[in-house]
Write a structure and sequence with these properties.
Structural class: mainly alpha
Helix content: 40-55%
Shape: globular
Number of strands: 0
Order of helices and strands: HHHHHHHHHHHHHH
Length: about 325
């Protein structure tokens, strides 16, 4: 199993070394550096436009039309989604490629909402949550986006990108996107105490629902929350939720909350006889390339599941 993961791609291998094998940075660092020049990372970078963008746009490709959305689904090839994937791959923020990309995106990329500069964010919580995560990871000061996002928290503790349309109840999807962004910002050491407070309130929103249930009935809020997807894009599932709590625990030193137990056992129950986890479904829409096929074992989901179980079982 470990050998299979190590041989999948540098983006997987360096995280396996760090998270599953406890290798020192002197060992996984050189493997991480290969993300820039080999495998999925290099493949994605090869599609970058000369002006630093991908597919000519910030959130949507320059050639995007409503007809494509209705026919094929939302496209995932523009700058925003490329940066999310490069962060997940672990492209070194200090690399020449990353520094150049951050600069060019800042100068050339705009949001589709009202033509806002990319690193200034826009208004929608899901999008801004991911922009915070990307900016924090790649060394950009995204504190204005953080400040805006803190004002958008709902009374039940989380976030909902439909707030602008009148929603007063938080969403699993919006909340996980914001939580990942706030946690990445906290990692920079520049976050004010209210950022941690907001993160904890969003985490409590998920914990009160055991990561997948309706608070009112105890039934699954969405059957898709129990099916594993990668790349997640804006979608939530219990695997993504648990991986956030693992990362949050690493930052804060807090032990896993007992209310995570049911979600953990769902993950454990989905392990295949060969020790892997499969891709349950995939999103429609334009992509640069796919990293797994539905129904087949996928290194990304397997890596996430193994490090979640390792963290939980150790506690």
């Amino acid at each position: 199993m470990i050998d299979w993961l190590l041989g999948a791609d540098p983006a997987i291998a360096w995280q396996v070394m760090r998270d599953l094998l406890d290798a020192p940075e002197s060992e996984w660092g050189p493997v991480r550096a290969r993300v820039e020049t080999e495998g999925w990372g290099a493949r994605l970078l090869s599609h970058q436009d000369p002006d630093g963008q991908w597919d000519g746009g910030g959130f949507f490709p320059a050639s995007f039309t409503r007809v494509e959305w209705l026919r094929d689904g939302q496209p995932w090839t523009a700058t925003h989604w490329a940066l999310v994937q490069l962060r997940e791959f672990g492209l070194d923020p200090a690399s020449e490629t990353a520094r150049r990309t951050v600069d060019l995106v800042g100068r050339n990329a705009r949001w589709d909402h009202e033509d806002e500069p990319f690193w200034a964010g826009e208004v929608e919580e899901c999008i801004n949550g991911r922009a915070i995560a990307d900016g924090a990871y790649f060394g950009v000061d995204v504190s204005p986006i953080v400040d805006l996002t803190l004002t958008q928290r709902l009374e039940d503790g989380g976030w909902n990108c439909e707030r602008e349309n009148g929603s007063v109840r938080s969403s699993f999807h919006s909340t996980i996107n914001v939580l990942e962004g706030l946690l990445e910002w906290e990692k920079t050491g520049r976050a004010r105490p209210e950022v941690g407070e907001a993160r904890r309130s969003g985490e409590e929103y998920l914990l009160e629902r055991h990561l997948f249930k309706r608070k009112s009935t105890g039934e699954p809020a969405d059957e898709k929350f129990l099916q594993f997807l990668h790349p997640s894009r804006w979608r939530y599932d219990v695997l993504r939720g648990l991986d956030h709590f693992r990362a949050s625990s690493q930052l804060t030193g807090q032990a896993p909350d007992p209310r995570l137990a049911e979600a953990v056992e769902i993950v454990r129950s989905r392990q295949r006889p060969d020790g892997t986890w499969a891709l349950d479904w995939d999103l429609r829409g334009r992509v640069w390339f796919r990293m797994a096929e539905v129904g087949e074992p996928t290194p990304w989901i397997t890596l996430r599941a193994l490090r979640i179980l390792r963290w939980w079982d150790a506690a």
